[in-house]
Amino acid sequence: MASEACDVCERSVRIAGGIGDLWNFAFESTQGLTLELTDGSEFFLCFDCMERLPDDHEPTAEDVADLRERTDPVDEDDNHFWHWG
Ligand SMILES: [Zn+2]
Fold it and tell me: What is the pLDDT of residues 18-70, one digit of tens each?
């Protein structure tokens, strides 16, 4: 089991095997994935941060940077809850 740091909240998240066969591994075992943006840039995001990206348009590097700006890096803490708004 590998782990990678989320590009937004910097939390270390577990990832299962290759990203290539995303649909072949259980979602419980992986907590983030690599997001490929339309401009070709790539970010590794945990699902928490992914959910916080705008869903009314394709996320851009700017959206990720903006989200990162609004997000405090968190320590390893599975009980962390986000404060919205
Ligand atoms: Zn994150």
Answer: 555 555 555 556 788 899 998 899 999 999 999 999 989 989 999 999 999 99
Q: What is the dihedral of CA 36, 50, 4, 20, to 10 degrees?
A: -40
Output the DSSP codes for 12-44. EEEE-S-STTGGGS-GGG--EEEEEPTTS-EEE
Compute, in angstroms, the gap from residue 74 CA to the centroid of ligand 1.
9
Interval between CA 9 and ligand 1 midpoint (Å)? 4
The structure's pTM equals 0.68
Indicate the domain borders of the chain. 2-70
Q: How far is the CA of 24 from the centre of ligand 1 (A)?
A: 23
**Total Cβ atoms within 10 A of residue 32:** 26
